[in-house]
C-alpha cells in the first residue's frame, strides 16, 4: 500500500502551532513561578541551573507538539532530541530561556519555540510570560510584536549603539568574554546583559537594543529569536562568513554589522575556551 507523503505545512501553519504552544507554556511557567521556584538543580556548571518549571514546560510543549504533529522531531534544552518519523519538520524549544532570571524573579525570561523545515528555521515565537510580550516571525513574512512590524535600529555609528550580550556558564569562558567586552565598552554607547538571549535578539529586532552578540549560545537559545531578528532586517551571522552558531551569534543592522563584526574578529571574540 502506498501512503501519500505528508503534506508539508506552510510557515504560517507552523507559527500558529508554535504560538498556541508557547502561550500555554508561558502560562504554566508563570503559574509555577507564583507558587515559588522548585526542583532547582545544576547542569554543566554550578551556575548553570534547571528548575522543575523548565522540565514541566518542556514536557507540556513536547506533548502538545506530539499530539498535533506526531511525526516531527523535537530538540529541547532539557530533554535533547526526540526523533521524528519521516517528517521534514523539527521543533527547537527552550522552555525557559533566562532560567537565572526566572529563579530570582527578574521579569526577563521567555519561552522560545522555532520550527525548521529541512534544517531551515521558518517560524518562531518568543514569549515573555511575565510581561506578555510576544515576538513572532515567519521566513519571508516579516517579524512582529503584538501586530507591529519590526524593523530594527536605525543607528549607524558604533559609538552611538547600545549593545546586548551575555555570558556562558563556564568560568574560563566567562573570563574570556569579559576581556572582550572590556575592550568594546569604550567604543559603544553602553552595554546590557539582560540574561535571556532570545529576548536580546527580539529587542534588537525592535530596535530596543541596536545590536547583540554572544559566543557559546545553543540552538534553542537563538533559533526563534534569530529568525525574528533576521526578519526585522538585521544581519544574523557568525564571524568571517560563518552562519550563526555556537561559536558566535551576531545580530545587527547592516550599518553596524560590519564594524562590530570586525572588532569581534580583532578581539578574538569567538576564540578562547
Ligand atoms: C542562557 C541565557 C543567557 C545567555 C546564556 C544562555 P538559559 O540560557 O540565554 O542570556 O547569556 O548563554 O545559556 O540557560 O537561561 O536557558
Can you walk me through this structure?
By secondary structure, this protein is of the alpha+beta class. The chain folds into 2 domains: 11-149, Fructose-1,6-Bisphosphatase, subunit A, domain 1 (Fructose-1,6-Bisphosphatase, Chain A, domain 1); 158-266, D-Maltodextrin-Binding Protein, domain 2. Helix content is 36%, strand content 23%. The protein has helices at 11-34, 52-68, 99-104, 171-184, 197-206, 219-231, 254-266; strands at residues 41-42, 49-50, 73-76, 80-82, 89-97, 110-117, 120-127, 134-138, 142-145, 148-149, 162-164, 190-192, 211-214, 235-237, 249-252. The strands form 3 sheets. It has an 8-stranded mixed beta sheet with strand order 4-3-5-6-7-8-9-10, sandwiched between helices. It has a 5-stranded mixed beta sheet with strand order 12-11-13-15-14, sandwiched between helices. A two-stranded antiparallel ribbon has the order 1-2. The model has no long low-confidence stretch (mean pLDDT 94). Residues 77, 94, 97-99, 166-168, 195-197, 214, 216-217, 221 line the site of D-MYO-inositol-1-phosphate.
Task: Please summarize what this structure is.
The chain is α+β, with helices and mostly antiparallel strands and 273 residues long. Helices cover 36% and strands 23% of the residues.
Task: List the defining traits of the structure above.
single chain; 273 residues; alpha+beta; Fructose-1,6-Bisphosphatase, Chain A, domain 1; D-Maltodextrin-Binding Protein, domain 2; 2 domains; 8-stranded mixed sheet; binds D-MYO-inositol-1-phosphate
Amino acid at each position: 500500500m502506498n501512503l501519500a507523503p505528508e503534506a508539508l505545512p506552510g510557515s504560517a501553519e507552523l507559527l500558529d502551532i508554535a504560538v498556541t504552544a508557547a502561550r500555554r507554556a508561558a502560562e504554566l511557567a508563570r503559574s509555577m513561578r507564583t507558587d515559588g521556584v522548585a526542583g532547582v538543580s545544576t547542569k554543566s556548571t554550578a551556575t548553570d541551573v534547571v528548575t522543575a518549571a523548565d522540565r514541566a514546560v518542556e514536557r507540556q510543549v513536547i506533548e502538545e507538539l506530539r499530539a498535533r504533529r506526531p511525526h516531527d522531531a523535537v530538540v529541547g534544552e532539557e530533554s535533547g532530541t526526540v526523533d521524528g518519523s519521516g517528517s521534514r519538520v523539527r521543533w527547537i524549544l527552550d522552555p525557559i530561556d533566562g532560567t537565572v532570571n526566572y529563579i530570582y524573579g527578574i521579569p526577563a525570561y521567555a519561552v522560545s519555540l522555532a520550527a525548521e523545515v529541512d534544517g531551515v528555521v521558518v517560524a518562531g515565537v518568543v514569549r515573555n510570560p511575565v510581561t506578555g510580550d510576544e515576538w513572532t516571525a515567519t521566513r519571508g513574512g516579516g517579524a512582529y510584536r503584538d501586530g507591529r512590524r519590526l524593523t530594527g535600529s536605525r543607528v549607524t555609528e558604533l559609538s552611538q549603539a547600545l549593545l546586548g550580550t551575555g555570558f556562558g556558564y563556564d568560568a574560563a569562558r566567562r573570563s574570556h568574554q569579559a576581556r572582550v567586552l572590556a575592550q568594546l565598552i569604550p567604543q559603544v554607547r553602553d552595554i546590557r546583559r539582560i540574561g535571556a538571549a532570545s529576548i536580546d535578539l527580539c529587542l534588537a529586532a525592535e530596535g530596543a537594543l541596536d545590536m547583540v552578540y554572544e559566543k557559546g549560545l545553543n540552538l534553542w537559545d537563538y533559533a526563534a529569536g534569530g529568525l525574528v531578528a533576521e526578519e526585522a532586517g538585521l544581519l544574523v551571522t557568525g564571524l568571517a562568513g560563518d552562519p550563526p552558531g555556537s561559536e558566535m551569534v551576531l545580530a545587527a543592522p547592516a550599518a553596524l554589522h560590519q564594524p562590530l563584526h570586525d572588532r569581534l574578529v580583532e578581539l578574538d571574540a569567538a576564540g578562547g575556551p
